[in-house]
Amino acid sequence: MKKKSIDMSAAMNAYLLPYIGVMTILCIFFLIEYADYSERLRKKNAERNETIAQTVKEDLKEMEDVKVEVMEDGIKVTLPSSVVFDLSVAKLKDTALPTLQKFAASIKNLDRRYLITVDGNTDNAPVFYGGDFSSNWELSLYRAISVIDFLVKEGNSADLFVAAGHGEFSPLAPNDTPEQQAANRRVEILIRKRSSSATPLTEVVVRQGRAVSSAAAKPVNKP
């Protein structure tokens, strides 16, 4: 009796077609689930950022011209340098301390999932020759460190913070008028979720390419 030959190609097709159909349905299902999860996570993060922003606004309401912005990945607080520093000085004004204490108390609620970056910025006026700072980079960095130093002394964990000094190289506006220069002299505080491992306070960022490890703020006489 002659044996029947098996058509392997037909058998494979009979198996693969249902398999491909099932896998396609599963892929579509998981894509829909992921999109739904991403949207729910985005809304949750947006609500959390809005809550943080409202708290910070309340803390800083006594300071003039302070701006609090909600971003997709966190919030940004812009402090005009004139509010927290005397001109060309990296020591915090005594008048700013009570308000900053309220801010320091609020961010104690943030855990290590967050990273707080403090960016110092200046105008393009050169530093006083022979003064305590060699450049606007250094002045802006020490201002950032001065803010962090105060917040840490108020009980916040040092490993939440990173300090950066941008000098005159991240202006909001051209330095063509005194008003524009005043707007460019600022400290920005960025509060956002970490996207990588923790960055210690000792790792400060300077666009000059050299790090300053001391956290002491120094006054300077600059015209």
Question: What does this entry look like structurally?
Answer:
With 223 residues, the protein is an alpha/beta fold. The chain has a single domain, classed as 60s Ribosomal Protein L30, Chain: A (2-Layer Sandwich), CATH 3.30.1330. The protein is built from 5 helices and 6 strands. A 6-stranded mixed sheet has the order 1-2-5-3-4-6. Helix 4 (136-153) links the parallel strand 3 (114-121) and strand 4 (161-165). It is elongated and about 90 Å long.
Main attributes of the structure:
223 residues; alpha/beta; disordered C terminus; 6-stranded mixed beta sheet; single chain; elongated; 60s Ribosomal Protein L30, Chain: A
Number of strands: 6
Distance between the termini: 110 Å
Shape: elongated
**Low-confidence blocks of residues:** 196-223
Number of domains in the coordinates?
1
Tally the helices.
5
Structural class: alpha/beta
Sheet with most strands: strand arrangement: 1-2-5-3-4-6
Give the amount of beta strand, in percent: 15-25%
**Largest beta-sheet characterization:** 6 strands, mixed
The helix fraction, in percent, is 40-55%
Can you tell me the CATH superfamily?
OmpA-like domain
Mean pLDDT: 83
CATH topology: 60s Ribosomal Protein L30, Chain: A
The CATH architecture can be given as 2-Layer Sandwich
Alpha-carbon Rg, integer: 27 Å
In N-to-C order, the SSE pattern is HEEHHEHEHEE
CATH class wording:
Alpha Beta
